[in-house]
Amino acid sequence: MLEFAHQEHVKSYYLDSRNQTFELPPLSQQEEADVCVIGAGFFGLSAALELAEKGKKVIVLEGARVGFGASGRSGGQAINGFEEGIDEYIAQVGFDKAKKLWDMSLEAIDIIDERIAKYGIQCDWKKGYATLALNERRMDDLIEMEKASHATFGYDKMQLWDKAKLKQHLGSDIYVGGLYDSNSGHLHPLNYCLGLAKACLDLSVQIYEQSPVVDLVEKSGSIEVKTDKSAVISQDVILATNAYIDALPKSIHRGINRKILPVESFIIATEPLDQATADSVINNGMSVCDNNILLDYYRLSADNRLLFGSDSSSEKDMVQIMRRNMLHVFPQLENVKIDYGWAGPIDMTMNATPYFGRISPHIYFAQGYSGHGVALTGLAGRIIAEAILGNDERLRIFEGLKVPSFYGGKSLKNLATKIGVLYYKFLDRYR
Q1: Are 191 and 124 in contact (CB under 8 A)?
Q2: Closest to 349 (Cα-Cα) out of 145, 82, 63, 78
Q3: pLDDT tens digits for 240-287?
Q4: Which of 141, 252, 289, 301 has a 20 to 30 A CA-CA distance from 326?
């Protein structure tokens, strides 16, 4: 089980380069609020910010520290669209709703732009993102993706790059081409999360750290949110725990934990590269991933470190494994030192479809971002806030998406993760 209660931030490059620090108190006495948010990551803080802007009294309860989970240690890539293809969404909900889903995924990027500009968040936000193919079959997938987004929805921000065009910007020979999106991008996730928290605090949102929630009790006209020391009495509750949902009692999650599987992701950060070496890796500031199932993703930080990550299970020496993976892509970095290595879980659904909804009329949740969380969490916060404020039209579109369940409890889910990693490695090798 993933633990979070009363823990400090994981050591990482992001932690050492954060530009502000919060030491917020735990909840020590009973409080009242219009909305209580459980979890101070991107989603929870985005929802709190949306509601506070509309005049609602909001309390956020965080079991560890602001940005403790993926919001403070992810790859930082903000990507439009969804992990599943456009055709799958059209088949599920029809063209009109699929078009609305696509437009909402673009809005998710706009929300980042808006938040950074409105609240002066310093988080190294940079546009430009490329998905790369390791063979011609996978390049065909990217060609279909560009064709579907352009022909179906009129999206014109993507460019197909052949190997020669890609080589103009990326110093690696292992790819046959890629799909470049000028609208998606990347940021420093912990600084963005701390910036959202600062914006919330400035709007009188109360954020309590080291305050793990242990129970929810629905009463007539209110919900009692119990922490290990006190409680919040609220009209509405938002569950924003994502990959850590399994660590909460069943009285809180009420089965929605069966919809997601926490998958470990690992990142290394090199020492700062001189400009010539940095340009030999990526010379246009874009972030990058391949289109494997278990993919590699990487980008340069503001101080020219290469941040290189992979979706994989934790093994004994992940820093060395990740360094080997990095050198496979960029052999020119053979003599570069690795300064950091850290891991963290992301929440995947079985079909990579986000899972947003309600477990009762006044308890809301959003989870299952499946690698798109930097952008989709902001959208989720807006959509859930809209529903609490009386307009659930957009939430109902997400509630109509099919998300299969994982059965068998935590032990079987852990086994499924291990078997799944081996299976996906096999598919990536021979696909």
Answers
A1: yes
A2: 82
A3: 999 999 888 888 888 899 999 888 889 999 999 999 999 999 999 999
A4: 141
